[in-house]
Amino acid sequence: SKIKRKLWLALFLDNNLLPSSNMVLVYSQMELMNKEIIHPLLCHQPKEEYYKCVIIKLLDKNIYFCSRCFLYFLFFLPLLAIQILAKQNFPEPLSLTIIYFFPLIMFVDWALTKLKLTKSSNLLRFIGGMSLAVTTSHLIFLFLTNHFNLHIYFAMAIYLVLTISIKITSKTST
What we know:
Number of strands: 5
Strand content: 5-15%
Strand order of the largest sheet: 3-5-4
Shape: flat
C-alpha cells in the first residue's frame, strides 16, 4: 500500500490539445482512482475552466466532458447518417442558413469567452455544439453529393479566418 501511494501518474498534455500553456497534471494513483477521470480526448478544458464541462458520475468517479464537444459528438454522426440515408438536401435558403449562420452562435460565444468579455454558460455551449454538429454534418453531406458546391469552400474559408482572428486577438489582448 505504501508502494501504491508512492506511485505517481503524470499526464503530460500536448500544448495543442489544451488552450492553456504547458499544463502538466500530476495525480497520485490513489487520488486518480478516488476522485476523477481526466483525459484530453474527453475534455480539453484546463481545471480552472471546468465550469464549461458536463460532469458524468460513473462508479463514484467524475468524468469531465467539454459541454460544446459533448453535444457536437452526440449529434454529428446521427445527423450525418440521417441526411445520407434520406438522400435529400435541404431547400437552398435553409441550407445557406445552416452553413453561414448556425456556426456564428458558437463563434460569438467562443470569441466573447476567449476575449474574457463574458463567461459562457453551458446552455450557450450546448447550443453552439449542436449548431456546429448540424453545420458540419450538412457540409459533409453537401461535399459527398456535390463537391463542386462553392458554398462549402467559401464557408470553410470564413470559419478559418474567424478561428485565426479569434486566436490572434485573444493572444494579443492577454
